Amino acid sequence: MRTRAGVCILLAWLVTVAPALAQRAPATAPIGGRIFGVVEGQAMTATDTFDALSGETSLFGGGGGAEVHGVWRKIFLRASASRLSVDGERVFVFGNTVFPLGIPMRVQLTPVEIVAGWRFATPGKRLVPYVGAGTVIMRFREESDFDTSSDIVSKTFSGAVAFAGVDVGVMKFVSVGAEVGMRIIKITRPGGVLGALGEDDLGGVSMRLLVSIGR
Amino acid sequence: MPRTSSRVLVLAGLTCVAWLVLVPVSAQQAPVPQQPPPPPPRGAFITTPEQRQALELAAVRDLNYIPGEVIVKFREGVTVVGQARALDALRSRPLPERLQWIADRTARLQVDGDLDSPAIAASLARQPEVEFAHPNWLLQPRLVPNDPQYAARQWNLTAINMPGAWVINAGGPGVTIAVIDSGVTNINATYGFKTWNGASIVTAQMPFAINTDFDAARFVPGQDFVFWTGPVLDSDGHGTFMAAVASQSTNNSVGYAGIAYNAKIMPLKACLSYWDVQILRSEAGQPGYAPLDVGGCPTSAVTTAIRYAADNGAKVINLSLGSTNPSPSYIDALNYAVGKGVFVALAAGNEFNLGNPTTYPASYAANIAGAMSVGAVGRSLTRAPYSTTGPFLEIVAPGGNSADGGANGVVWQMALRESDFNPATVIFPRFDRYTDLGSQGTSLAAPHVAAVAALLMSQGITSPAAIEAALTVTARDLGEKGRDNDFGAGLLDPRAALRGLGVVR
């Protein structure tokens, strides 16, 4: 609860106070901030694993975040979180053969990204391309029918992310954007299907659509 | 509808009602003598008088093979002429017609007038036409009897968390387990068999009954390979006990639980009991008692039963039998079964304290993906002192250990009442009464694994090799870290095997 309140205060500060601060110092880069919502899909690097468990190789979900730009020249800082999930069933893998076991399961990935980026045009322009990179901390949760509390897998992994996108201003404080990213989240000594199929990366290529409010 | 038709219908209806009401009354007034039920079908005996005599001789001479019998496999492409040439090497020069084929190129040969099976086999093995030849080994059930003392606790099932596994799979529905053993009685019937009463050969009525803690509907047709062509009858109790461990009815408020309690059981009789031999002896007109320790499971019958199970719908085979004598024919039969999608569980042996010899056919399982040799642990999950160890041991399961918990440390099931047919004390046996029975041995460990394999088959792992892999990777490591010769991969963990794999675990 306290965390959520802190996040709200931070966002409010980013949207209101930070631009005001930026106005006080127009000679340097204008500081601005915005919040955004995102829908995204991630084509998993571990395609065999997710195909075996769910018949899908992409996970979909959504989330949101906040961004401060103009901290120094055209650099921006961003924090975001999203949740991706897929339903499937547990399996046993023997060689290249996958035996579905009919035990329903759900996998949730919650990547939290802290990144820095560079905008190629000043805010306010209609088209603003940007690139960025940073770290991703991913909360991983996997649960199945018949699970006891000790069976549920809830772990945190970390990795790196890089992305590129473009913002399109649609109103004075509203923009939409599209972004392509690459997450690399390596697992050391993976078990489960990941290990059985020789894969070790819970990252992938993400496609994101963003709607931003703020300067 | 015309009124006349209505009246006819009403009249007909009344007539029917009257008939229904009155007929039972009139039946009561004039009871018809009830016909006695037809006698149960009686089969022809499979074991010939010569074979029965050979079995008795084996018991008297303490031989682990049937005297005068060998198993021979000819090389690929050997014709009848070649077979005859090979058989000419024997003193009795039997004709190829004497070969009783039990598999492709593999036959059982009974040689007249020569009881030295090892010598016969050695002569044949030297012939270029022969791939291998060996005596028709007698396997023995792998159970160490224990004085029964009632105990309702089935520690063996909680030790492997069966309740946690049954939540995922309710007893292996849709899978058939073949129990190759002394038989599992699947008929309620009384047979008049000849036996010796101490003074003369008499016909005794011997009742047989299905285990009272076993749903008769869960039997699929079985086959007798040693005694007769009639229904499968267990006159020893070993096979019934193995079936009980694997699949005794559960949640029926009776007796004990079984592991794969919704699986079907295919009873395949490949072992002759004392009473089988005694009956064969008396039916042949030979007075007297058979030796008390007579009986066993001819290799020829066991390998034929393995093939039969694979050809007739079984998906799992339990083999709680073994000996210290090798036979490549086991390898052929096991490979045949696994090739047909059948998983095989084999008791590793109870000879640790007898020099810990390599046992067969269990040791062959180590090189066959889809067949597993099973050792035994006691209640505290330490190796049972009798349980054979070695590089061929693949997994362990509860087999009981009376030194580790006394009567509460053995494996209990509802099984045939041994005092009803103990040949040392009984003249006219019966095989229709069941009671609590506790025993120990790798015999009992193997059906744990067979039954869990049935659960896995039912859950969707249809490849025997994959089942072996699933059981191996999910086994709970015991003893030295990793695989070791005492516990193999470790203790059977049905729940973990059934849960399979998620993304990372």
Write structural notes for this entry.
Chain A is of the alpha+beta class. Chain A has a single domain (2-214), classed as Porin. Helix content of chain A is 17%, strand content 60%. Chain A has an eight-stranded antiparallel barrel. The longest helix of chain A has 23 residues, at 2-24. Mean pLDDT of chain A is 87; it is low at 1-28. Chain B has two domains: 49-138, Alpha-Beta Plaits (2-Layer Sandwich); 144-499, Peptidase S8/S53 domain (Rossmann fold, 3-Layer(aba) Sandwich). In chain B, the strands form four sheets. In chain B, strands 9-10-6-12-14-15-16 form a seven-stranded parallel β-sheet, with helices on both faces. In chain B, strands 1, 2, 3, 4, 11 and 13 form a six-stranded antiparallel β-sheet that branches. In chain B, β7 and β8 form a beta hairpin. Chain B is of the alpha/beta class and 505 residues long. The N and C termini of chain B lie far apart (74 Å). Chain B is built from 13 helices and 18 strands. Residues 1-33 and 143-151 of chain B have low confidence and may be disordered. In chain B, α7 (238-247) packs across α11 and α9 (299-311) packs parallel to α10 (328-339). Helix content of chain B is 29%, strand content 20%.
TL;DR of this structure?
Chain A has three helices and eight strands. Chain A is an alpha+beta fold and 215 residues long. Chain A has a single domain, classed as Beta Barrel (Porin), CATH 2.40.160.20.
Q: What class, by secondary structure content of chain B?
A: alpha/beta
DSSP helical segment count of chain B: 13
Question: At the first level of CATH, what is the class of chain A?
Answer: Mainly Beta
What general outline of chain B do the C-alpha atoms trace?
globular
- Give the spatial strand order of the biggest sheet of chain B: 9-10-6-12-14-15-16
* Percent strand of chain A: over 45%
The CA-CA distance between the termini of chain B, in Å, is 74 Å
Please outline the major beta sheet of chain A.
Answer: 8 strands, antiparallel, barrel
Cα(first) to Cα(last) distance of chain A is 28 Å
Q: Total number of β-strand segments of chain A? A: 8
Number of domains of chain B: 2
Order of helices and strands of chain A: HEHEEEEEEHE
The CATH architecture term of chain A is: Beta Barrel
- Summarize the main sheet of chain B: 7 strands, parallel
Share of helix of chain A, binned: 10-25%
Total number of strands of chain B? 18
Oligomer: heterodimer
Shape field of chain A: elongated
Strand content of chain B: 15-25%
Mean pLDDT of chain A: 87
Structural class of chain A: alpha+beta
